[in-house]
Amino acid sequence: MIALSPECFPCFFRQADLAALAHGASESVRKALAARVAGILSDVPDKEVPARIATGLHEMVRNVLGTDDPFRGVKEREFDRFGEVASRAESHVAASEEPISSAVWMAAFGNIMDSGIIERESMEGEMGRLGAGDGSRQIPDRLRDAILSARTIGVLLDNAGEVAFDVPLLSRLAGEERTVWVGVKGGPVIDDLTESEAQRLGLSAYGDVVSNGNRGVGTDLGLCTREFRDRIAGSDLILSKGQANFETLFGHVRNVFFLFRCKCPVVSRALGLPEGDLVVLDGERAG
Description:
Blueprint: H1 8-23, H2 27-41, H3 50-65, H4 72-80, H5 82-94, H6 99-109, H7 120-128, H8 132-135, H9 141-149, E1 152-156, H10 163-174, E2 179-184, H11 195-200, E3 208-211, H12 226-233, E4 237-241, H13 243-249, E5 256-261, H14 265-271, E6 278-282
Parallel strand pairs: 1-2, 1-4, 2-3, 4-5
Antiparallel strand pairs: 5-6
Helix pairs in contact: 1-2, 1-3, 2-3, 5-6, 5-10, 6-10
């Protein structure tokens, strides 16, 4: 559904530069990095999924910067305020008329927190506008029914900054008589959450924390471990966070709902939605 478009190219350059800035790289290193990105982009398939291109790009970025985790400092700042943000999100959801709907939309709202695409000032501005409008929408009837009937639910988490917004949803899913598991990355990629980081934040209180075994952008099933693929196949419902997961999983997973914010014109055009809109998308009925 999402394939490489002209608008993707400046975004790739921006992603690489944000990683360099997060790591404190010099201007000369940033220029060298941009040259390497240009080399990669000169030979990419026209129909490739952008997130898959980004996987190779970020591997190159780590090598050039000489670090396994360029966004480590960014993530540490997010971890420091995890409790505060999760508390704010929970207070908002608890005060709503329909907490489960509010929790789903709160999780989608949190997807603005993306250090690999959006600059810090923009993210802070969005957090400051956190209000009733983003937490009081209804969710699709099919999603509500799926949540009520599912015996096993997998939640594929995204980045370190937004996971605090997922806590109200995780706590409500885990509060019922069902099995919940959370999927995370197999190692650092952009600012996405890893298994050790999820354990550190106490997310195992809501269910098993399961690594996908790779450092791909999004969730490329071809790179994932057999255990991770089996978890997805054996779940009655998958809640998938983030735009990159949408790019890589759409059309490949049954019983999935995608929760994210449209962050680019390519995805917005594909969905027929304005850029910046929150999305709760039924993966089986879209497209």
